[in-house]
Amino acid sequence: MIKNIVFIALLIAAIFMYLDRNAFKKEFQFNGDRYSHVKKAYGGDLTNHFYTIEGEDFLKARQFVQIIEFPEEIPKEQFERTVQPVFKEYNLKPFNSDGLERTGSFEKGGYKFVSFSNSVRINDEDHMGFYIAIVEEETSLPDRGHSQEILNELMNLIFE
């Protein structure tokens, strides 16, 4: 009888953990649009999740959200060190003294992009979020106030 109760408790815990990890596959509202999970890529212990508006094909999307999922809570210094290569790839520079709120712009494949990053809290754990969008040639980064709005919205993503 006790073995059955323990087995059922473990089974329920395992199911809960599995369903909880799928939080990354849920949709969310961001910058006035609904984003859907379209791609997952693994890099060592990290998992990169990519989202596009209404699940648009990633290769055709003009904007996307990327969330780097960390396997567990890690110290802030290690967290920042881990995402430095992505900061460099997206040419992200500190926006505020926090160090994780960053904005930037870069060119790749003949397109000009704006980029934003901020920490994202999912399942009570810190992860890293990025918003990347193609812009017209004459467009630069949004003004400071709009950039802060995007950064705040990125930090406060709510998965549905």
What keywords describe this structure?
8-stranded antiparallel beta sheet, globular, 39% strand, 8 strands, 160 residues, 3 helices, alpha+beta
Task: Give an overview in words.
The protein is an alpha+beta fold and 160 residues long. It has one domain (25-155). Helix content is 29%, strand content 39%. The protein contains 3 helices and 8 strands, in the order αββββαββββα. An 8-stranded antiparallel β-sheet has the order 1-2-3-4-8-7-6-5. The termini are far apart. Residues 13-20 have low confidence and may be disordered.
**With helices defined by DSSP (H or I, 4 residues minimum), what is the helix count?**
3
Strands of the widest sheet, in order across it, are 1-2-3-4-8-7-6-5
Task: Determine the strand fraction and express it as a percent band.
Answer: 35-45%
Largest sheet data: 8 strands, antiparallel
Q: What is the count of β-strands? A: 8
Mean pLDDT across the residues is 83
Query: What is Rg?
Result: 18 Å
Question: What would a concise description of this structure say?
Answer:
The chain has 160 residues and is an alpha+beta fold. It is 29% helix and 39% strand.
Q: In terms of topology, how is this protein built?
A:
Elements: H1 2-21, E1 28-30, E2 33-43, E3 46-53, E4 63-69, H2 76-89, E5 92-94, E6 102-108, E7 111-122, E8 125-135, H3 144-155
Antiparallel strand pairs: 1-2, 2-3, 3-4, 4-8, 5-6, 6-7, 7-8
